[in-house]
Design goal:
Blueprint (H helix, E strand, L loop, with lengths): L1 E5 L4 E8 L2 E9 L4 H14 L6 E5 L5 H18 L3 E4 L10 E8 L2 E8 L2 E10 H10 L5 E3 L9 E2 L4 H7 L29
Parallel strand pairs: 1-4, 4-5, 6-9, 9-10
Antiparallel strand pairs: 1-2, 2-3, 6-7, 7-8
Helix pairs in contact: 1-2
């Protein structure tokens, strides 16, 4: 039994997966209070299972706070249950086997990746807007998944699926260090009383 948690975008979610079967998958849409909603959802899912074999977390790229919150939650559960914790890029959480995935990284930058056969063909990278728009134009023939709409991009706005992350994590190493968030740039923090440009 695998518990998967994904919280890299405006919609978070969690799933229980056993073998190839999705036992349950639910999403929470609470951009400002997603952490609390996600903890409640995960607690509800864990109440329905007796054993757990692994915890899988979507490590981004995406929301700095969402990724850190999901990792902390997953780490606590894995440590308490004595099971492996596995991190996998949230951009691998779409059902198709070949697609592009993109997102608004703010401040005039966008992230972009290409997936072929369920694995990265082009690893997630940051691009300035002009380069990003060129990549979108080149990939117009295939689906482009985005966690939230991007102006001028005919992408399919859909959050990554926790159950798909669980399934795609099957080939991941079960033992190793705690997964690291997949941040493509440092967090932008507004300090109290200061205006950042």
């Amino acid at each position: 039994m695998i518990l998967a948690i994904e919280s890299s975008g405006p919609v978070g979610g969690a799933a229980l997966v056993e073998g190839d079967a999705v036992v349950v998958e639910r999403q929470v849409e609470a951009p400002r209070g997603r952490g609390v909603a996600l903890v409640s959802l995960v607690a509800e899912l864990l109440d329905s299972v007796k054993t757990l074999d692994r915890v899988v977390i979507g490590i981004g790229p995406g929301s700095y706070n969402g990724i850190r919150g999901a990792l902390a939650l997953g780490w606590g559960i894995a440590a308490a249950r004595g099971v492996p914790l596995v991190g996998i890029s949230s951009l691998l959480g779409y059902p198709e086997t070949s697609y592009a995935a993109a997102g608004d990284a703010r401040r005039g930058q966008y992230y972009w990746a290409r997936v072929e056969n369920g694995q990265f063909f082009q690893e997630p990278m940051l691009f300035e807007e002009t380069e990003f728009r060129a990549l979108v134009a080149e990939a117009a023939e295939g689906p482009i998944f985005v966690p939230a709409p991007i102006t001028g991009v005919a992408g399919i706005a859909r959050p990554p699926s926790a159950s798909i992350l669980a399934t795609r994590s099957a080939s991941s190493a079960l033992h190793g260090p705690v997964p690291e968030p997949l941040y493509l740039k440092p967090a932008f923090i507004n300090l109290p009383g200061k205006k950042n440009s």
